[in-house]
C-alpha cells in the first residue's frame, strides 16, 4: 500500500489544478500571519477603504457615477500602489513556494 506522500506526489498536478484557489487563499492567510510587510500593506489598504468609502464604490462598481475629490484621488493613487505591492509579494511567495514544492517532488522521484 502506498503511503500518503506517494499518493500526494503521484497526483500533484491534479491536486494543484483542483485546489488552486484554496492554495492561493491559504498563501494570503500565511502571508498575513508571517510577513510583516504584507500585513502592514494589507492594514493600510483596509484603512484607506474605511477612510474613503467612495473608493470602494469605485473599485467594486457599486455606483454608476463616482466623483472624486483631490484627497480621494490621492488616496486612490496610494491604494492602487499598495495593491500592486501586495500582489508582488504574493507572486514572489507563490514563485518560491513552487520551487520548494518542485524540490520536494524531484527529491521524492530521486532525481536529486
Distance between the first and last residues' Cα: 24 Å
Overall spatial form: elongated
* String of helices and strands: HHHHH
**Continuous helix count:** 5
- Return the average pLDDT rounded to an integer: 86
**Strand segment tally:** 0
What is the beta-strand fraction? under 5%
Q: Tell me the helix content.
A: over 70%
Give the biggest beta sheet: none
What structural class do you assign from the helix and strand content? Answer: mainly alpha
In total, the number of domains comes to: 1
Low-confidence stretches: none
Short description:
This protein has 112 residues and is mainly alpha-helical. It is built from 5 helices and no strands.
Give a structural overview.
83% of the residues lie in helices and 0% in strands. The protein contains 5 helices and no strands. The protein has helices spanning 4-10, 12-34, 36-51, 53-60, 70-108. The chain is elongated and about 60 Å long. The mean pLDDT is 86.
Strand and helix map with partners:
Layout: H1 4-10, H2 12-34, H3 36-51, H4 53-60, H5 70-108
Helix pairs in contact: 2-3, 3-4, 3-5
Attribute tags:
single chain, 112 residues, mainly alpha, 83% helix, 0% strand
Amino acid at each position: 500500500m502506498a503511503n500518503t506522500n506517494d499518493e500526494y506526489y503521484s497526483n500533484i498536478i491534479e491536486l494543484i489544478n483542483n485546489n488552486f484557489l484554496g492554495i492561493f487563499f491559504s498563501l494570503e492567510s500565511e502571508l498575513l500571519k508571517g510577513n510583516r510587510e504584507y500585513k502592514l500593506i494589507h492594514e493600510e489598504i483596509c484603512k484607506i477603504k474605511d477612510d474613503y468609502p467612495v473608493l470602494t464604490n469605485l473599485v467594486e462598481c457599486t455606483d454608476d457615477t463616482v466623483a472624486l475629490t483631490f484627497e480621494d484621488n490621492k488616496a486612490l493613487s496610494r491604494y492602487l500602489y499598495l495593491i500592486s505591492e501586495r500582489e508582488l509579494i504574493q507572486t514572489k511567495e507563490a514563485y518560491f513556494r513552487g520551487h520548494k514544492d518542485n524540490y520536494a517532488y524531484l527529491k521524492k522521484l530521486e532525481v536529486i
